[in-house]
Amino acid sequence: xxxxxxxxxxxxxxxxxxxxxxxxxxxxxxxxxxxxxxxxxxxxxxxxxxxxxxxxxxxxxxxxxxxxxxxxxxxxxxxxxxxxxxxxxxxxxxxxxxxxxxxxxxxxxxxxxxxxxxxxxxxxxxxxxxxxxxxxxxxxxxxxxxxxxxxxxxxxxxxxxxxxxxxxxxxxxxxxxxxxxxxxxxxxxxxxxxxxxxxxxxxxx
Length: 205
Ligand SMILES: [Zn+2]
Fold this sequence. Notes:
The protein is of the alpha+beta class and 205 residues long. Helices cover 39% and strands 23% of the residues. The protein is built from 7 helices and 7 strands. It has helices at residues 18-34, 47-58, 66-71, 118-129, 135-150, 164-168, 190-201, and strands at residues 74-76, 83-94, 100-110, 114-116, 132-133, 154-163, 178-183. The strands form 2 sheets. Strands 5-2-3-6-7 form a 5-stranded mixed β-sheet. Helix 1 (18-34) crosses helix 2 and helix 4 packs antiparallel against helix 5. The chain is globular. The structure holds zinc ion. Zinc ion (ZN) binds at residues 94, 96-97, 99, 163, 165.
């Protein structure tokens, strides 16, 4: 980071653990050799460094505590209707192949005295998805974090994702989408769940 540069308005600052960055860089250089590349050719000189930064970015969720995120914006509020945040983008990596899975999460809860900031729901999805994951566990972890911190009348989480490990390798199915869902409390009731499903299926025009 250039410290002499003055920030006038806003600047996004990225922080990387320098020690891990160095080690990752070393290992990615080894990997380049092991796959038959020449890590010293011009186009690849900076690649281990870039990939090391990139993997730290893609797994930053380990440094974030989702329950803390929710508790940091917990407000007393009497609203007792369904709150839905839908189409939250997910960029995660499957823990079996370390290949991305990409999709959307739809999250709903029915407050029981407390609400949280809407952006916090998206940040919780982010904190859990920026790790090595399986879609099933990701779904349940998001649900549990909300249930445990806000103690709402119910939580619903639906995730739809495309797994590149299925598209690029293995069975090579390009267009299959995996859907997972998990519910608590009021969402165990068929009518409430149906309302949620219908609300996430309608598009704003
Ligand atoms: Zn996989």
